[in-house]
């Protein structure tokens, strides 16, 4: 135990401490942020951009699936909402942002 106490006294009396420890910590934190950016932030922004482009390109007659899993054909559009025809005489109104994907033409006929 006295061995540890002696080394502590030696450091307190002005022994040279290793230099560069602070710089290593700063570089480690910057590297960690860069890694987090490329793993989490960048892919999420890319998905958001693709989704907003898809929502902006919606047109009457497109076959879509909503985030809740409802399939339908767009019969009417405005700035924030769209009307889906989900079956004969059944139309539902949704927010444009809740469209999950645009389906290839003819998908609804092949399913039902």
UniProtKB/TrEMBL annotation:
Q: Which residues cross the membrane?
A: 24-41
> A single GO BP annotation from the record?
protein transport
Q: Where in the cell is it found?
A: Cell membrane
Instruction: Kindly state which keywords UniProt assigns to this record, in alphabetical order.
Output: Cell membrane, Membrane, Protein transport, Translocation, Transmembrane, Transmembrane helix, Transport
Membrane topology term reads: Single-pass membrane protein
Q: InterPro entries, alphabetically?
A: Preprotein_translocase_YajC
One CC-aspect GO term? plasma membrane
Q: What is its main location?
A: membrane
Q: Which residues form a coiled coil?
A: none
Family in the record: Belongs to the YajC family.
Question: What name has this protein been given in UniProt?
Answer: Sec translocon accessory complex subunit YajC
- Which source organism? Sediminihaliea albiluteola
Which taxonomic lineage is given here?
Answer: Bacteria, Pseudomonadati, Pseudomonadota, Gammaproteobacteria, Cellvibrionales
């Amino acid at each position: 135990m006295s061995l540890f106490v002696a080394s502590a006294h030696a450091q307190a009396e002005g022994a040279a401490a290793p230099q560069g420890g602070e710089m290593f910590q700063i570089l480690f934190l910057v590297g960690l942020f860069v890694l987090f950016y490329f793993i989490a932030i960048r892919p999420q922004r890319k998905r958001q951009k693709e989704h907003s482009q898809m929502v902006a390109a919606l047109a009457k007659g497109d076959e879509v699936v909503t985030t809740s899993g409802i399939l339908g054909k767009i019969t009417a559009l405005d700035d924030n909402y769209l009307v889906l025809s989900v079956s004969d005489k059944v139309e539902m109104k949704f927010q444009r942002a809740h469209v999950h994907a645009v389906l290839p033409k003819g998908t609804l006929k092949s399913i039902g």
